[in-house]
Design a protein that fits this description.
By secondary structure, this protein is mainly beta. Helix content is about 10%, strand content about 30%. The chain starts with a strand and ends with a strand.
């Protein structure tokens, strides 16, 4: 049976899926599949059910082989894999992947699309007892940034990079550039 929209979700005759954490959840008695609009937009729905996204061997199905999906981004962060890339805004990776650390429990790094707000090469945090945040590139209005820091522990919501990578992100990213953070 072809997919159709029912009560704000896409359905077919196979069970149900929820977008959150990508877990399959059966809805008792319905026998329907719920798919996110993003999955439908990526062409994952076929008349017979769900098909896997085809990607070249060794690459992710997103922009430039990253897990991100917005073609105009200049940085991509994969929180589940602790990997980060720089892109040219045209879908091509120019640097990475490189390792990162991110927000821990209670201070999670948010996911979604963000716009670079400002940069501060010698930033010192006022919220966290004068913690140094070299090469800070702020991506939201809540003080979260890409910056140099230890990768050995989680942050208070920032994306930490080693010194060389933080410097490269600082040089590449500018205010109004788009970045995407995925789980």
């Amino acid at each position: 049976m072809p997919a159709r929209r029912v009560a704000g979700a896409w359905t077919s005759e196979r069970g149900s899926l929820s977008k959150g954490r990508h877990r399959k959840q059966e809805r008792p008695g319905t026998g329907r599949v719920l798919l996110s609009a993003a999955a439908v937009g990526m062409g994952l729905v076929q008349a017979s059910g769900i098909a896997a996204a085809a990607a070249p061997a060794g690459t992710a199905p997103g922009v430039g082989g990253t897990p991100c999906t917005t073609p105009t981004i200049k940085a991509c962060v994969d929180l589940s894999e602790n990997k980060t890339w720089l892109l040219d805004g045209k879908g091509n990776v120019v640097y990475g992947p490189v390792a990162n650390s991110h927000g821990g429990k209670g201070h999670e790094t948010p996911t979604g699309d963000f716009i670079i707000q400002r940069k501060d090469q010698y930033h010192v945090s006022q919220e966290y007892e004068g913690a140094k945040m070299p090469y800070a590139v702020f991506f939201d209005n809540n003080g979260r940034a890409f910056h140099q820091g230890t990768l050995d522990r989680q942050s208070a919501g920032c994306v930490r990079l080693n010194e060389a990578d933080a410097k490269r992100f600082f040089e590449h990213l500018n205010p109004n550039d788009r970045v995407q953070i995925v789980q």
